[in-house]
Write a structure and sequence with these properties.
This protein is an alpha/beta fold and 356 residues long. The chain contains ten helices and 19 strands. The structure holds NADP nicotinamide-adenine-dinucleotide phosphate, beta-D-glucopyranose and zinc ion.
Length: 356
């Protein structure tokens, strides 16, 4: 069957021929519909993040998947059910994190990530998965089911951030999303659909006209250009914000988030920066501010089945135009390379293997 992969000696994504997988005990066979592409895929392709499965010279890409159960193989799933797979799997049999349903909290060495780190991804005509890692998606969302995984990333980050403020009467009404990439904009739309936030900001580094800034405008958010208003200036130019969601992968933003926050605020850090960049920060000032103003920062990676289920509900609450504007291209195998374009007209893309 066809799959899209990179190899150790050539990191350009291309179509390779791999055997169609057979489901093992407890696994179902899934026919792939669509696979999304995000910043992490670009980092994997560039060799900045993740790695090849042990002993293999290729890595099948893709971790944002939606498909249809082709062979339930005795699991509780039904043939024809639309599903989205979670990303992490245990490397050597089960471990406590997976047994608890919390693979997203597993430390390095206790997981592999399909399509990213140590395990083949879903960018192929078929894939297999343990049934308990396949989350049902309503038929009406089949075309957009590749957005369940990224939306689940935000559901987890929000859960961690709100939990960090759960011991007192926290009533956030302003939020700043750092990054106008696909994750940042999807998150801005998800925040807009919640009741919590009256003012929303989104930070980028682009000139108008730009399709990502159009989405910010259409959501009623305020676009912040980081070249004119760096993150620490947001409180003076706009307002101190209760919640920051960092999705740039720009390492300075992790620390500058502290300065953008209002007292009692919380910042969720999602970006995965390139390793090795060293820079100075005003350490004691930031430390004082975190302590004396009860601020919090939480790092968040990956997501579990509960977050996928919450993500399905969150996507259903978004207006249709958000998807029309965010998904700038869905490409069949013949044109799959365009799904990896990274220009300023591209927001979110997917590769389509089949239709429902
Ligand atoms: P992306 O498409 O590369 O988006 C990053 C955005 O940040 C881009 O639009 C970029 O602007 C903007 N940006 C970068 N540096 C900036 C700066 N200094 N000032 C203003 N804007 C800046 O990636 P993505 O898919 O949205 O993902 C965002 C980040 O989250 C990535 O680092 C990714 O690895 C990470 N991620 C983490 C998780 C997790 O589980 N923690 C899950 C998914 C993704 P330009 O386009 O103009 O360059
Ligand atoms: C994926 C997560 C993964 C993270 C780190 C993200 O793009 O959506 O599932 O845990 O990258 O590899
Ligand atoms: Zn991702």
């Amino acid at each position: 069957m066809d799959a899209i992969a990179v190899t150790r000696d050539d990191r350009t994504p291309r179509v390779v021929d791999v055997p169609r997988p057979d489901p093992g005990p407890g696994e179902a066979l899934v026919r792939t519909l669509r696979i999304g592409v995000d910043g992490t895929d670009h980092e994997v392709i560039a060799g900045d993040h993740g790695g090849f499965p042990e002993g293999d010279d290729h890595l099948v890409l893709g971790h944002e998947a939606v498909g249809v159960v082709e062979d339930p193989n005795g699991t509780g799933l039904k043939a024809g059910q639309v599903v989205a797979p979670t990303v992490r799997r245990p490397p050597n049999g089960n471990n406590e994190y997976f047994r608890r349903g919390e693979p997203d909290m597993a430390p390095g060495g206790e997981y592999v990530e399909r399509g990213i780190d140590g395990a083949h991804g879903f960018m192929a005509e078929y894939f297999t998965s343990p049934a308990d890692h396949l989350v049902p998606v309503p038929d009406a969302l089949a075309d957009l089911g590749f957005l369940v995984e990224p939306a689940s990333i935000t559901e987890k980050a929000l859960e961690l951030a709100f939990a960090a403020r759960s011991s007192f009467g926290w009533t956030p009404d302003s939020a700043l999303v750092l990054g106008n990439g696909s994750l940042g904009l999807l998150t801005l739309a998800m925040l807009d659909a919640r009741d919590d936030f009256e003012s929303l900001y989104c930070l980028g580094r682009r000139d108008r006209p730009d399709p990502t800034i159009d989405v910010v405008d259409r959501l009623g958010g305020t676009y912040v250009d980081s070249r004119e208003t760096p993150v620490p200036d947001v409180p003076a130019v706009h307002e101190p914000v209760d919640f920051v969601y960092e999705a740039t992968g720009h390492a300075k933003h992790a620390f500058e988030t502290i300065e953008a926050l209002a007292p009692n605020g919380v910042g969720a850090l999602l970006g995965v920066p390139e390793a090795g960049w060293e820079f100075e920060v005003a350490g004691s000032d930031l430390h004082r501010e975190l302590v004396l103003e009860n601020k919090a920062l939480v790092g968040s990676v990956n997501s579990n089945v509960d977050h996928f289920e919450a993500a399905v509900d969150a996507l259903r609450a978004l207006p249709e135009w958000v998807f029309d504007d965010l998904v700038t291209g869905v490409y069949e195998l013949e044109a799959f390379r365009r799904a990896f374009d990274d220009d300023e007209t591209t927001i979110k893309t997917a590769v389509q293997f089949d239709t429902q």
